[in-house]
Write a structure and sequence with these properties.
This protein has 2 domains: about 5-135 and about 160-205, Jelly Rolls; about 220-325, Arc Repressor Mutant, subunit A (Orthogonal Bundle), CATH 1.10.10.60. Helix content is about 40%, strand content about 25%. It contains 11 helices and 14 strands. The strands form 3 sheets. A 7-stranded antiparallel sheet has the order 1-3-4-11-6-9-13. Strands 2-5-10-7-8 form a 5-stranded antiparallel sheet. A two-stranded antiparallel ribbon has the order 12-14. Strand 3 (about 50-55) and strand 4 (about 60-65) form a beta hairpin.
């Protein structure tokens, strides 16, 4: 096992996180952070030992995830992110589109958008996971290749942590976690140089095919308003808008927007907006020095209490518990 990832696990487990004992609670917690999914316990009577710790930053999040007993995660089709997964114990067997891939201690997986994913977690599996926002990866790929059109890189999924590229990625993840945690209440260093270094390592050393953006591979053409809705929420400008206001901006009804988003992304407009609001709110709380009340206003909540409840449901901690929020 890569020593850097052991250190990552120890550091991540030291920050506030979720610890739950039931499958419905775990599904509810992770559906707001990743995407809607199902958990299927191999032993219906088994009790989860669910743990999740995360550091969220621009374009990426670092996660430590454990379920405990053997189970299946029916995740559907990834749409908005890539996921790099590295088992620290146990391993995962995945039906990945029309392929079957596996990970174990000493290896990892790079899961790209566009394929249906159904994962079988072996008993006592704990993973370090790096989530990368799809739009961020696509933009970096476009710069790397010099292509005029934005496209989606689909990587060979298996990654050997004993190979030079795997060792470098493990070291970079270790540096990201270390810098974010050690910063404490001081101004946090941007993780972007390290995230970009991970991407450059993938681009240079992991085989990938460049395909039309994931929407083009969905069943039927994706409506322009679905693409534009997500584009509007790529930045903070429209995060304070309501769904009705966004629908007016896109010149569609809220019902049409809801139907299209559910069909082509698996999210309702409200779920997608909430996800983007919470991601940006965490950045503001950890790095921009704003108060909880001010962040609530910036992401569209008139009531700081309602914002705090939504943030706790999405991130697993109260906004005031984040290191940069303490004492304000």
């Amino acid at each position: 096992m890569a020593p850097d990832l052991i250190d990552v696990s120890n550091r991540l487990s030291s920050i506030p996180g979720l610890r739950l004992g039931s499958a419905p609670e775990a599904v509810e917690a992770l559906s707001t952070r990743y995407r809607k999914h199902r958990l299927l316990l191999q032993d219906a009577g088994a009790r989860l030992d669910f743990r999740h710790h995360a550091i969220v930053s621009e374009g990426a999040s670092l996660n430590l995830l454990r379920y405990g007993p053997e189970l299946v995660v029916d995740a559907g089709t990834f749409d908005t992110f890539y996921m790099l997964e590295f088992p620290l114990s146990g391993g995962v067997d995945i039906a990945y589109g029309d392929r079957h891939v596996s990970s174990r201690v000493g290896s990892g997986l790079v899961l790209s958008p566009g394929s249906y994913i159904r994962s079988t977690w072996r008993a006592d599996t704990t993973q370090v996971m790096l989530r990368l926002e799809r739009s961020f990866v696509e933009q970096a790929w476009q710069r790397h290749t010099g292509e005029t059109m934005r496209r989606t890189p689909v990587f060979q999924p298996e990654l050997d942590l004993g190979a030079p590229a795997g060792r470098r990625i493990a070291r970079l993840i270790g540096m990201m976690v270390g810098e974010q945690i050690e910063a404490g209440t001081a101004k946090t260093l941007s993780p972007m140089p390290l995230v970009n270094a991970v991407l450059e390592t993938l681009f240079e050393h992991v085989p990938a095919t460049s395909v039309p953006t994931v929407e083009g591979m969905a069943s039927g053409p994706v409506p322009t308003y679905v693409r534009d809705f997500r584009r509007l929420l790529d930045g903070p400008t429209h995060l304070s808008c309501t769904i009705a206001e966004l629908a007016i901006e896109l010149d569609v009804s809220t019902r049409t927007l809801t139907t299209g988003m559910r069909r082509f992304t698996g999210y309702s407009p409200h779920d997608y907006l909430t996800m983007r609001r919470m991601e940006y709110a965490r950045i503001l709380l950890e790095r921009a020095g704003h108060s909880v009340a001010r962040v609530a206003q910036l992401v569209g909540y008139a009531n700081a209490g309602r914002f705090a409840a939504a943030f706790r449901a999405h991130c697993g901690v109260n906004p005031s518990q984040l290191p940069a929020s303490r004492g304000r």
